[in-house]
């Protein structure tokens, strides 16, 4: 059979036509699926949808479907949604194609029974199609959608209060355009939805029941109920990051004993709300039991301990008093004082910790282009230009004002 090329729309208004791009339909296959503001788990959660719920798919981004959810653009994971695309077929022996959406418009041709079409849009009870290179209209009453004579697949989102989103909306006696019109409503009006059938909502109004097309109403927004768990920070300083990993930027720091509410978890990282946005902290340094918080160590105590290691020999990759390399020395000292600082290289610390132009004793000092290009050496700043580091000759104190260190100086960071 000849296929008439076109796409679908999802809005119409009384006395006029509003046409949008076609959207496929997706059915949720998870007990509970989070609807997010963007195409990743680091984006905020808008709402939760349940198994069997229908969603209007408007696009795709990697492993995510873009959907129209309550009138706004949102995203859901493809892993938990089955996508279907509506197919439309003529179900009468001969269907007239007209120049406009009414029987008052002239006839420009006809379609045969069984012929498939793709719909460009809708105008009340008519489908807009492409016919022999021009725009045409056919009555919805004589089109079968996905094997049954019904309205196009649209998103249905359960019972509740919905708001009319077109200028004028007909209320019918049954779920289809072939049912009699028993009333009407206007844009912005609230409707009580008590059921759904074939792309139509059953509504209760003034003690009576009627049906409206699900395409032209939007569910009233509600605040999603998201389960959270309470944790307490059990290290002196815990980095808050923009994503679930140490490769993401640091947004801030949480102090020991601070209470946080986690709304999700991925790969050992907890999702939290930080300054009104989505952020992440590692689960390794929090506890569900409120800790007994002692006073954090002073910079003096940290420096005193670092200086006590003077003379410890240099050892490549070393992180114990048996021997240190420059970054291993940093890792050992700050871990001892409960800083959330991982074992990485000088380049890793320089790229992940918070930079400062006003260094204080206990901050970190960096040098570049020593034995290799880029950040290549580091130590603990003691104040007045002095620093302690694991040099080739072992742990020792040096001063940035000397010609060699001055020539290779890079900058400072905080230890978080």
UniProtKB/TrEMBL annotation:
Signal in keyword set: yes
Record PANTHER family: FAMILY PROTEIN, PUTATIVE-RELATED, GLYCOSYL HYDROLASE FAMILY 19 DOMAIN-CONTAINING PROTEIN HI_1415
Domain SH3b: 23-84, 85-146, 159-221, 228-290
InterPro entries tied to this protein: Cell_Wall_Dynamics_Protein, NLP_P60_dom, Papain-like_cys_pep_sf, SH3-like_bac-type, SH3-like_dom_sf
Transmembrane segment boundaries: none
Domain NlpC/P60: 296-416
Signal peptide per UniProt: 1-23
Pfam short name (any one): NLPC_P60
Name under which the protein is recorded: SH3 domain-containing protein
Family note: Belongs to the peptidase C40 family.
Keywords: Hydrolase, Protease, Signal, Thiol protease
Source organism of this protein record: Ectobacillus antri
Xref: SMART domains: SH3b (SM00287)
Gene3D superfamilies: endopeptidase domain like (from Nostoc punctiforme), SH3 Domains
């Amino acid at each position: 059979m000849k296929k008439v090329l076109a796409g679908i729309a999802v809005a119409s208004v009384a006395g006029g036509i509003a046409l949008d791009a076609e959207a496929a339909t997706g059915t949720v296959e998870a007990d509970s699926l989070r609807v997010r503001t963007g195409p990743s788990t680091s984006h905020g959660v808008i709402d939760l949808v349940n198994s069997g719920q229908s969603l209007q798919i408007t696009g795709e981004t990697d492993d995510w479907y873009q959907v129209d959810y309550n009138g706004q653009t949102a995203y859901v994971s493809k892993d938990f949604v089955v996508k279907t695309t509506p197919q439309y077929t003529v179900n009468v022996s001969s269907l007239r194609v007209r120049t406009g959406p009414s029987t008052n418009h002239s006839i420009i041709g006809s379609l045969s029974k069984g012929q498939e079409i793709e719909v460009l849009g809708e105008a009340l009870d008519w489908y807009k199609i492409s016919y022999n290179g021009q725009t045409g209209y056919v009555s919805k009453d004589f089109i079968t959608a996905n094997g049954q004579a019904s309205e196009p697949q649209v998103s249905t989102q359960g019972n509740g209060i919905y708001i009319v989103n077109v200028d004028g909306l007909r209320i019918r006696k049954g779920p289809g355009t072939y049912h009699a019109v028993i009333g009407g409503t206007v844009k912005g009006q609230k409707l009580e939805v008590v059921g759904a059938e074939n792309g139509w909502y059953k509504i209760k109004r003034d003690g009576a029941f009627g049906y409206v097309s699900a395409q032209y109403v939007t569910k009233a927004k509600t605040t999603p109920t998201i389960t959270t768990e309470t944790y307490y920070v059990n290290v002196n300083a815990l980095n808050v990051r923009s994503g679930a990993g140490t490769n993401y930027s640091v947004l801030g720091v949480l102090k020991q004993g601070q209470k946080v509410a986690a709304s999700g978890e991925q790969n050992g990282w907890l999702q939290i709300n930080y300054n009104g946005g989505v952020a992440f902290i590692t689960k390794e340094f929090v506890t569900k039991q409120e800790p007994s918080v002692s006073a954090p160590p002073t910079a003096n105590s940290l420096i005193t301990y670092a200086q006590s290691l003077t003379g410890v020999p240099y050892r490549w990759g070393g992180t114990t008093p048996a021997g240190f390399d420059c970054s291993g020395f940093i890792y050992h000292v700050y871990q001892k004082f409960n800083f959330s600082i991982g074992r990485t290289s000088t380049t890793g610390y320089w790229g992940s910790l918070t930079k400062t132009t006003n260094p204080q004793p206990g901050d970190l000092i960096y040098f570049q282009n020593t034995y290799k290009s880029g950040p290549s050496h580091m130590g603990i700043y003691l104040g007045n230009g002095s620093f302690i580091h694991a040099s080739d000759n072992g742990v020792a104190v040096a001063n940035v004002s000397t010609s060699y260190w001055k020539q290779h100086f890079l900058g400072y960071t905080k230890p978080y």
